[in-house]
């Protein structure tokens, strides 16, 4: 598809790479501008086409998997596009609607009906021929219809809402939320609410530690989500960093040219499922 001035903005929107303020402006434009909405849909279909054909570069594939494939609906669309591609049908052009399985079945049935009623000309007169007894036919081998293969759908990371609490130094604090990790879980999103007014340009640093102070994981350059209120910071944490026991997520507000400010501490009880 031909490039448009909005392609980079749309790609960043689809891959969840926009800050909260820019995302809000894009979503408002989707309601007000029908041409822009169509451009977003076409761009999304282009991403699905290219991932189904294996044409995404390594960086694009990482963006697609990390930012786009985060809901069951999107994962199902991507899996369906790959299944059609493997079946040899591909997917129609982005400007055309998808043909569902029921549509293909209806077309096949129509073709059989046409073949049955199409005139075949004058039938040939039968010729009498003496036939020798033929041997009994060998039993037909069973035909196995291969089942379509679908790529496994990756479960989107869980979002755990944290509660700010004063650290009392004792494990098993009663107001700490409980997180039970599943064996196949790879990532968890920790969402920490903020109890103060936040500028959309403010940056945050998150540090995950044990109650004893051992650092487990650090992520910098985070932004607060302002809508809906209250403002909150989301931190994607790999499951390997979440050890069973009580852990603390510490947030720091980072302002250029000024020392970091404490933005809150949040307790979390981690248990293996």
Summarize the structure.
The chain is an alpha+beta fold and 273 residues long. The chain is built from six helices and eight strands. The protein has two domains: 7-86, no CATH class; 158-272, Immunoglobulin-like, CATH 2.60.40.
Distance separating the two termini? 47 Å
Unreliably modeled segments? 90-119
User: Beta fraction of the residues?
Assistant: 15-25%
Fill in the CATH topology of the largest domain: Immunoglobulin-like
Strand order of the largest sheet: 1-3-6-5-4-7-8-2
Largest sheet: 8 strands, mixed
How would you sum up this structure, described in words?
It is a single chain. With 273 residues, the chain is α+β, with helices and mostly antiparallel strands. The chain folds into two domains: 7-86, no CATH class; 158-272, Sandwich (Immunoglobulin-like). Helix content is 30%, strand content 23%. The protein has helices at 7-14, 20-32, 34-52, 58-68, 72-86, 101-117; strands spanning 158-161, 178-181, 187-193, 203-210, 215-225, 232-238, 245-254, 261-272. An eight-stranded mixed beta sheet has the order 1-3-6-5-4-7-8-2, with no helix packed on it. Strand 4 and strand 5 form a beta hairpin. Helix 1 (7-14) crosses helix 3 and helix 3 crosses helix 5 (72-86). The longest helix is centred in the first third of the chain and has 19 residues, at 34-52. The radius of gyration is 29 Å and the shape is flat. Residues 90-119 have low confidence and may be disordered.
